[in-house]
Amino acid sequence: MTAVTAPATGTAPRPRGPRGLVWVMLRVHRSALLFWLMLVALFAGGLLWAYGPGADAAWSEYLATGCGSGQPSLGCDVSGPAYQRYDYALGLGGAVMGLVPLFAAAWAGSALIGRELENGTARLAWVQSVSPARWLAAKLAVPAALLTAGMVTLTLVHRLVWSSEGELRHTMGWRAWHDDTIFLANGTAATAYALLGLAIGALTGLLLPRALPALAVAAAAELALSNWLGRLRPHLWPPDLATAKDDYPETVGMIVEGGALTREGAHVPIPDCTGEPGCLTDRDITGFYAYYHPTDHFWRLQLVETGIVLAIATLAVLAAFWLLKRRTGAAV
């Protein structure tokens, strides 16, 4: 009997399964990936519940109390348990979307960049035919894609709830389109802030290549920058002007500035005239004014703020690549 032997090929068999920087990164950070997918699924589901059964239950509860019939009732301005659950689901969804940039900055500064520089795993990757530039590009591109997909999903679901239940919110009057969490959750700015958090965290991780210090500084920097941009928001687009002679003008929207008008048209603060007859006349006040943003300014403010946030995020990414090149020299 003759034994048959296969000729040697001289090459080792290729390993099966996905390979490359993207796959390695997903495996290393699979806990963060699973947490993000769970977070998106959980709060998207909560918002969809508010869109369907939650809103239906709130309306049924409202009508069951005798409200909505056109007859005045003292109990119609008090929310019941069903509306409170609906409002809680909507508010919690927007609040979580507002916290995602903070989470992204802390995670990127610590686990994504700082820890790998601190432990030396980044340098190990650089000596295995992976350049520092490719390493950082993968570190930023994969989370950016996942953050964008998740935030866009949450924004679309939040807008679905917000646009379909306007009458219910108008009846209770508890929320407005210009509230910080609602404004961000209903537009492109929520995704832009999440990407800004990722960029700030990556830059901080390179500046402070230690996990815990990078986490704290990145979170603080993202929080300070978000608060500053939030205060800047009313001034990103020219507001409308409303005036009235006898009382403060009635406006619906985001108030930017208000006060009193003199005979010469000067804008002055409204004086406290309690118990002083003729106070306004003595101070030469002939009317009142208010600068405000109406509802149709939403997308103008939203897109301008989104552009500013993305521009800052781009500068942070460029600074991160420049810093990496400076530290690694010709290896980049």
From TrEMBL:
Signal peptide: none
Keyword rRNA-binding: no
UniProt keyword list: Membrane, Transmembrane, Transmembrane helix
Superkingdom in the source lineage: Bacteria
Chain ranges passing through the membrane: 33-52, 88-114, 135-162, 182-204, 211-229, 303-324
Protein's recorded name: ABC transporter permease
Organism field: Streptomyces cinnabarinus
